[in-house]
Amino acid sequence: MKGNYRKNIRPGLAVRIVMKEDQRSGELTEGYVQDILTNAPQHPHGIKVRLDTGEVGRVKEVIEEEEIEW
């Protein structure tokens, strides 16, 4: 599932984000949502979140339960 809609994102959800410094390479970082930082109901580049590790980025994918490997 894509992370363009705020209604699909909630704290505790496993996601893959792209951080600002990784936008050119497209490298994704996996983690659990701690805070939702985008107030708008949708964003074309993904909803901005803070992970439980403190990393901030835009959600590119919501990880389904069966996909979690870490």
Model description:
With 70 residues, the chain is mainly β. Strands 1-2-3-4 form a four-stranded antiparallel beta barrel. The chain is built from no helices and four strands. The mean pLDDT is 92. Helices cover 0% and strands 36% of the residues. The radius of gyration is 11 Å and the shape is globular. The protein has one domain (6-63): SH3 type barrels, CATH 2.30.30. The two termini are 19 Å apart. A hairpin with a 4-residue loop joins strand 3 and strand 4 (56-62).
Annotated CATH architecture: Roll
CA-CA gap between termini? 19 Å
CATH topology: SH3 type barrels
Please state how the strands of the largest beta sheet are arranged side by side. 1-2-3-4
Mean pLDDT: 92
Q: Give me the Rg, rounded.
A: 11 Å
Percent of sequence in beta strands = 35-45%
Number of DSSP helical runs: 0
Order of helices and strands: EEEE
**Assembly state of the chains shown:** single chain
- Categorize the overall geometry: globular
CATH structural class: Mainly Beta
Q: What portion of residues is helical?
A: under 10%
